[in-house]
Predict the structure.
Amino acid sequence: MQVSEKTYKGIPASEGIAFGPAFLFQAVDLKIPPRAAAPVEQELKRFEEACQKAGQELEALKADVAKRTDAGTAAIFEAHQLMVADPMLADSVRSHLEAGETIETAVQAASQEIAAMLASMDNALFAAREADMRDVGRRLLRILLGIPDTSADGLKTPAIIVSQDLTPSDTTRFRPDLVLGFCTASGGLTSHVAILAHTLGLPAIVGLGEEALSHIPDGSRLILDGTRGELVVDPGPGTVDRYEEMKRQAAARLASIQTTMTREAVTADGHRVEIGANIGDADSASEAVRFGAEGVGLLRTEFLYLQNSQPPDEEQQVEAYRRVLEAMGDRPVIIRTLDIGGDKPPPYLKFDRELNPFLGWRAIRICLDDQALFKTQLRAVLRAAAGKRALLMYPMISSVEELRAANALLAEARKELESSDIPFGSNIPVGIMVETPAAAMLAEHLIRECDFFSLGTNDLTQYTLAVDRTNERVASLFQPLHPAVLMLIKKTIEAAHQQGKWVGMCGELAGMQKAIPILLGLGLDEFSMAARSIPEAKWLVSRFTIARAKQIAKQALSLPTAGEIEELMTGVLTETRGESEK
Amino acid sequence: MQEISIVVHNKVGLHARPAALFVQIAMAHQSKITVLKGEKIGNAKSILSILALGVNQDDTITIQADGADEGEALEKLAKLIEDNFGECR
C-alpha cells in the first residue's frame, strides 16, 4: 500500500462508487483590489478586451450546451452574448470611467445598476432578466481580474466535484455527463446536493468536514464510496482493486433489481403496497415512470412559486399540474399545497426577520393567512383534477383547526367553480402531511376530517428530535430511525387504519432500505421516494412476508436507541441479500 | 428616415428569445434603428434597451430606421413580429 493513501469519512448521501480526479469547485471570490484609475481610453481598451474574451467563453458554452440539451437552454447564453456587446452597458461603463473609476469598479457598478433597473420592471418575465445581467457582470469582472474560470464552466473532463458546499444553481450548472460524483465539506442527508445526486443517480458524500477538504489537492485521484460515506485520496493499487470488485457486485445486483422494477410492489406473501415517486415538476414525472413509479406520492409545488417575482396565476398552475397528471397517465398524483417559509422566501411575500424560520411563518400557516394566494392554488388543483387521479395534501398541519380552516377554503373554492360552471375534480381525496409530533399525536382526530395521511419524515424527525438538519454540528443527531420517530409513525398508521383509511410516506425514510422492512411491518400502505430508489425498494419489498416484517418492526420498536435499530437492520439486510444470492 | 407601427402579438412580448432575435436582425443592418413604445425610446441594437421598454403582448410599437438599408431593416423586423418570432416563446 502506498503511504500517501488517505481515507476520510463523511455522511453517505447517495449510493454508488466513483473513481476519478478531484475537481475543486469554489464560487469565485470577485474582490476588487484598490488601484488608481488609468486614462479613460486605456481603461476602455481593457473593457473591450474583456468583452471579447467573454464573447468567446459564451460562444463555447453555447455550442456545448446546444450539443447536450435543447436549443432553448443554449439561447440563454446567446442573450448573454448580446448583453456583453450591448451599447447600453458600454455607455454606462464609460460614464463611470469618466467619473474617475477603474474599469473593474465601473463594470461592477454598471451591471448592478442595469440589473436593478430590470428587477424593478413590473412584468415578472422582464424582471427575471436581472439574474442574466448580474451573471454577465460577474463574468466580465472575473475576466478583468484575471481569475481563471474555476466555476462550473471550468469542468471540462470527467471528475468528482469537491466543494465546501454546493447551492442548487451551482450543481445544475455542471455538465451532467462530466460529473462522476459529489463530495462536500458541509451539509447533511437532506442538503440539496444529496437530493440532487440521488436524482441523478450519482454517488455523493456530504459532511466530510473542513479538515478533509484541505487535504484534497485539485486533480488528485479519488475513490468516492457514496454507499459507505468513504473518500479515499490517492488510493494504492490494492484499494483500487477492492473498490472495483465492490462496484462490480453492486452493478450485478442492480441488473437483477431492474427486472422487478416494472412490476407492482408485492411482498413475498402477496400483500400489495404502492411505491411512488417524489417529484418537483413535469419533467421528472416521465423519469419516475421509467423507474417504475406507481404514482406520485408527493408533487412539490414550490417550483411554481419560487421562479418568478410574482406568484403563479391560476391558469399557469392548472397547466403545470395538468402536465404532471398527463405524464403520469392513470396513476395517482398527490399534489401538496405550497410549502415554503422564511428560509427561502419568494420575493412577493413579506417576511419579518425570523429567529427560527422552521418554527415560524411557513407552509399552511402562510396559506391560511394569505387566503387569496391559497385559494388560487386550491382552485387550480381542483380544476387540474377534472377527469384525473389527483389527490390534494396540506403540509405542516399541527392542529385540527388548521385542517378545518383549509377544508373550509377548499369548500369555498369548489362552490365558486361550481357556480361558474368550470369543470373540476369533485371527488378529489384530501389528506394531510403528518410531519409535526402534534399531528401524529392527534392522528385519531385528524383522520376523521380527511381521507389519508402522508408521513413527512424529514420534518417529523427534525421537530421530534429538535435537530436542525442543516446545522453541521448537530447533523449527526438527525436520526430518522430514532425510536421516538418510529413510535410516532406507528401511532399515525394505527389511527388511520382504525378508521379504514390509508397512510403513505413521502420523507427520505420511505426510500431508506434499512427502514423499509420496519415500515412494511407497521402497515404503511404507500411509499414515495426519489425515483432512483424505487427499483431497489420494490425488490426489497418482494423479499419479505408481512409476518416477518411485523416481527422485525416489533423487535425494532422494542429497542431503546437509533444505533441499536440501525444495527438490527444492517443484520436484516445482509441476511436478506445473502438469501437472494443462494 | 422611414417608420412603421406594429402590434406585438407574441405571448411574452419582446422578452428573452424574441428580444434576442429582434436585436440580432437589427444589428445586421447599418441603419440607426429606434423603437418607440409610448413615451419610451429604445435602441434596437441593444437588448438591454429593448428589454427596458417592457413590450408586452398586444402592445403597439413604432420602429424608426435611418440609413442606407432602412427599408430592408424595417421589412425584416416587421416580418419577424408578424410571424410571431417563428412561434418561439
